Amino acid sequence: MDAIRERGLGLAAISYDPPDVLSAFARQHGITFPLLSDAGSSTIRAYGILNTVADDVLGAGQDDEVVRADARRVISVTGSLKTAELARGTPFPGTFVVDRRGRVASRHFEAFYRERITASSILVALGDRAAPVNATRVVGDHVELTAYPSDETVRPGTRFSLVVDVVPRPGIHVYAPGAVGYRAVTLRIAPTPFLRTLPVVHPPSEIYFFEPLNEHVPVYQRPFRIVQDVVVEASPEAERALRGQSTLAMEASFEYQACDDRVCFNPVAVPLAWTLTVERHD
User: Fold this and answer.
1) Which of 15-24, 68-77, 264-273 has the lowest mean pLDDT?
2) What pLDDT shows up at residue 78?
């Protein structure tokens, strides 16, 4: 909350739970921001984010195996349909960012209720530049980079971001995706059980004319950021495997090739590693 407020933002949560449930939950966890009760899911419906899978499986689709399979995946981590009635009225989980005029500036949503993007990851998506204290900083001959996870604590279902901020040295460019014959920038995540990587986000590049070879190639010459979202699996298998773990180790490498206006240097792979704290759900 301090980080959110420091950036001039507020926070409120909306759910279909009744006020007494929200009040008890807020007291139990020391929550000080508003928890708003949307009785009857009228606001959820108005926003167009009602999850109708429970209604489908309890209604006309109850004998349709495709609908039943979707319900088992979307509304029940146990695979049982007994919770379908409880899921009636729930939204697809997500976050709206609203400006001071009440207009939606951006939105961040998930299709599976057990997977949730974190507030820190949303701040990264909004362009937050405040790297945490434990960020890995590497000062090389051609670039300076700062790499960090958006969150230090994760749970099954957490969707967080790995961030690499890169500053090329003056007169240096590094090759962007699409460059042929060169090592384009790549954030390579080592396979880790129960972690799923999502498509990496690269910023727009610029075309550089390399006169000695009369070629035009996509490059980065100014500071840029690469963001890789990672999901901690929320399956029963992952829950069981992570139950006895207090930490989760991740390894990665940031690869690039740098050149100046005369020389192309050898490709470089910078090793990166993080240890995340693992917590269980309430």
Assistant:
1) 68-77
2) 52
Whole-angstrom distance, CA of residue 28 vs CA of residue 170: 53
What is the per-residue pLDDT for 75? 65
53-69 pLDDT tens trace: 877 777 777 778 887 77
Task: Give me Rg for the CA atoms of the chain.
Answer: 23
Tokens of 35: 């928890």
Q: How far apart are CA 211 and CA 129, in angstroms?
A: 35
**Which candidate, 274, 279, 23, 14, places its Cα nearest to that of 150?**
274
SS3 at position 110: coil
Of the candidates 199, 200, 197, the residue with the CA atom closest to the CA atom of residue 185: 200
What is the bridge-based pairing of β-strands 268-278 and 153-154?
parallel
The number of helices, as runs of H, and strands, as runs of E, in the chain is: 8, 18
Q: What's the pTM?
A: 0.87
Q: How far apart are CA 79 and CA 71, in angstroms?
A: 8
Q: What is the mean pLDDT of residues 25-39?
A: 95
Ordered alpha helix ranges (H), 76-130: 84-87, 119-125
Q: Which residues, at least 6 apart from 242, have a Cβ–Cβ distance to it below 8 Å?
A: 156, 194, 232, 248, 278, 280
Determine the distance from the C-alpha atom of residue 120 to the mean position of all C-alpha atoms in its chain, rounded to a whole number. 9
- Could you give the CA distance from residue 97 to residue 108 in angstroms, rounded to a whole number? 8
How many CB atoms within 10 Å of residue 222? Answer: 11
Spatial neighbors of 117 by CB under 8 A, at least 6 apart, are 94, 95, 108, 110, 159, 160, 229
pLDDT tens digits for 170-211? 999 999 999 999 999 999 999 999 999 999 989 999 999 887
